[in-house]
Amino acid sequence: MSLLELRNIYKIYGDLHALDDVSLTVEKGEWVSIMGPSGSGKSTMMNIIGCMDKPTKGEVLLDGVNIAKESAKNLTGIRRDKIGLIFQQFHLVNYLTAVENVMLAQYYHSMPDEKEALEALDRVGLADRAKHLPSQLSGGEQQRVCVARALINYPEIILADEPTGNLDEANEEIVVDLFHKLHNEGTTLIVVTHDPEVAEVAQRTLVLRNGKLHKEVINQNFTGKIQFEDRQEVQPHA
Amino acid sequence: MFLRMIRGTLLRQWKKMLMIAFTIALGASLASAMLSVMLDVGDKMNQELKTYGANITVVPKASSVLNDLYDVEGDTSGTYLREDELGKIKTIFWAFNIVDYAPFVSTQADLPDGSEVKLTGSWFNHHMELPTGETLDAGICSMRSWWEITDGTWLDEQTMTEEHSAMIGAALAERLGIHAGDTLHVDGTEAALDLHIVGVYDAGGDEDEQIYAPLHTTQTLAGLDGKIDSIEVSALTTPDNELAERAAKDPSSLTVSQYEIWYCTAYASSICYQIQEVITDSVAAPVRQVADSEGAILEKTQLLMILITILSLIGAALGICNLVTASVMERSSEIGLMKAIGAQNGAVSGLVLTEIFLTAIFGGVLGFFAGFGFAQIIGHTVFGSAISLKPMVIPITAVLVVLVTLAGSIPAIRMLLRLRPAEVLHGGH
Predict the structure, then answer these.
(1) H or E element at residue B313
(2) For B340, which of A11, A39, A52 is closest by C-beta distance?
């Protein structure tokens, strides 16, 4: 059984079909990128996969449960237990320190555990910055705190929305390396991105256009490492 | 973690929280000031209204029956109260609330010019040694404080040198050409006396055609030793409520507990009842004119204060509403994030409400003390005395602060519950 399965998903706002009959599957431990221009439906798909929205039509099976039919309260529970979210804008609570931001996810999941939160920060290379407020951290460091917060509850899927959108190349590489490490540890990754370099390091790239799944590209040379020196315009294979 | 978040919010948004606390303090201060004055105003108004005279009259039972049946002043001849029982009035349960009283006995007397005059006997400043050890100077000097002395002085029973002194109404004095210091011969039904006139008063009513003399002088003239017609009592009373009105009609209709509450509350009706218990064959009744104006003024004053309280609380609720809604809107991405990482609506609402209530407690306490200060200013300005702190004001103000804070937070909480993480974290689609 696939970890995630979207079956004929539609999301309709009036006359606009933000998602139009989209179907896809993601296996456990897979690293998938979702690409597409603005308005192609990437964020809508991310919201639906992340249990933050429901499709107008179709089924979304997450670990065998059709989340399209769940109540808002249950969706919050599923999100808390199964999904780790990473945002382009980081969305750290600015009056909490790095470690407290990680503990916040623990607090709403089960019990805050500072030791475990510090270990999570250590995994992303920020053990020494644990007591710093977000305003005292660089963009890359803030995104790594965000990754640590997403990891802390051992989610089934890490869902990242433009995780490198606000980062320079050096930090972009650090974050992608983190994803590679997570992938190697068996974590399922779904990364929504504009950036071809970030997209093509995944095992599989899905290209959305006008709400439809336009292309699906398998990365034959998957290394999980970003290759800046070979930067080219992405032309996903059919 | 919860406390760290609360502390973080309060410290980070201290300016906004201070504004919320200030708004709550403003509402709470007005509410506590109005409540303090409102709960104390009954006593204050009573004290003010005492200057308008007695609020309870005691008459013999027989004349009261005639009065009730025919709505006319009863012929009191042959029915009198006993002078020797007057001291008992200061022994009733509510003796402390009896601030003044005076007995009255009236008779007709003939003047030298052949005309007839009404002569009333009473206490002027009668000194009493009470069984409790207290002393009381009671009489019409204080109970007719609005009389204007146009000639001479008030009759002073304690320093009176002449055996039979009296005061004469201005109209009668003018007709007879009498001045203070003159002697007036009066011929009563049982005796004739020469009265030494010590003062001329202008009462602005029927009394201006009468003569007021000490009780024993009038009793001698009328041959009514030890007898009196009526007693006027000035008492501090609690405004009547439904229980008092029911008891006034028939105390036996009350249950035992209702009776105890009524008996142990200073309602005019319960004081009347207690006076009747100690004065043989008497009927004590509130003076409707005074009692009614007391009630009407009290009701209107209290209504005004209730309206001010309600309006100030509505104002505070609207202020809180704006500030809390603005705060939640400012924090929408933070709240969206909490929901995205698994916070249920209850947890987020609980966090925001805790912040607001902590602020409300601060503002409420501040407002309560400020309000008590306002109450003192009102007390000294309007009544010339301090307003006492009624313990009841504290829980009422607390409940009002909670209700106003809740009411003011409702729109913000509704917004918070409707807030979808997807919309605030990265747009809808």
Answers:
(1) helix B288-330
(2) A52
- When comparing pLDDT for B321 and B54, which is higher? B321
**Bridge partners of residue B101, in order along the sequence:** B233
Question: Chain B residues with CB inside 8 Å of A77's CB?
Answer: 342, 344
- Closest partner residue to A18 (CB to CB) among B336, B343, B429 is B429
pLDDT digits (tens, 9 = 90+) for B301-318: 778 888 888 888 898 889
Task: Tell me yes or no: is domain A27-56+71-230 CATH 3.40.50.300.
Answer: yes
Half-sphere exposure of B57 toward its Cβ, with a 13 Å CA cutoff?
A: 15
Q: Does residue B121 register a pLDDT over 90? A: yes
B334 contacts chain A (CB < 8 A): yes
> Which residues lie closer than 8 Å to A63 by C-beta, 6 or more apart?
A3, A4, A82, A156
> Looking at residue B87, what is its pLDDT?
85
User: Among A41, A85, A96, whose Cβ lies nearest the Cβ of B341?
Assistant: A85
Judge if ipTM > 0.90: no
Mutate to test the interface with B, among A34, A47, A94 (most CBs of B within 10 A): A47
Q: Is A81 on the interface with B (CB under 8 A)?
A: yes
Whether pLDDT at B76 is above 60: no
Q: Show the beta-strand stretches assigned E in A102-146.
A: none
Cβ atoms within 10 Å of B146's Cβ, excluding its own: 11
CA distances from B219 to B77, B110, B377 (A): 13, 15, 50
Domain boundaries, chain A: 27-56+71-230
User: Looking at CA atoms only, how far is residue B19 from chain A in angstroms?
Assistant: 20
**Residue in B closest to A44 by C-alpha:** B429
Residue B151, token pair as written in the block: 């000639």
Name the pLDDT band for A224 (thresholds 50, 70, 90): low
- Distance from C-alpha of B399 to C-alpha of B176, rounded to nearest angstrom: 68
Residue A159 confidence (pLDDT): 92
